[in-house]
Design a protein that fits this description.
6 helices; 58% helix
Length: 173
Amino acid sequence: MDQRAFLEEHRGRFRAAVASGEAVLGIRSWDDLQSSKVAGLWSPAQVVHHLVVSHRGYLSAMSEALSAPSTPEGVKTTFMGRQIALFAGPTKKNTPVPRGLPDPPSNVPADILAEWRAQNAAFEKLFEAAETRSLATKYTNPVVGFLRMTVADGFAIVTGHTERHAAQIVERS
């Protein structure tokens, strides 16, 4: 897959996932989003909190990697990046939260929605910036600190992770 097609596919999937989550979040009260329909599962608010916390490091690391001038050279991914994307994505339902990422609080502050929306807008800008940069640029994975991966890996991880948890927001609302 060439770079343009990769970015279009992942941007489209990211947008669709965010839109499906937003459709639910926009019609329910915050108090309602704080409760889980199933004991032992995160509430929709807790899922949003998890997305924000887990994506912060990716947003920062990918922004830094894309800030340096580079030339598009196609899509290059790493073996471990592909594995993380697989396990973070919608096909793996029981992947545990990585060590180092906290569980969401039982009472999530409402301002997390504004942060999620701002973060999603920042990822949209990253997709745009990536059109003229190398997706092969490497950075250190913000969750698994000893792994180096490419910007393409990061887009795949964030897209799949957003799809997985946006589906949970919908299912649990």
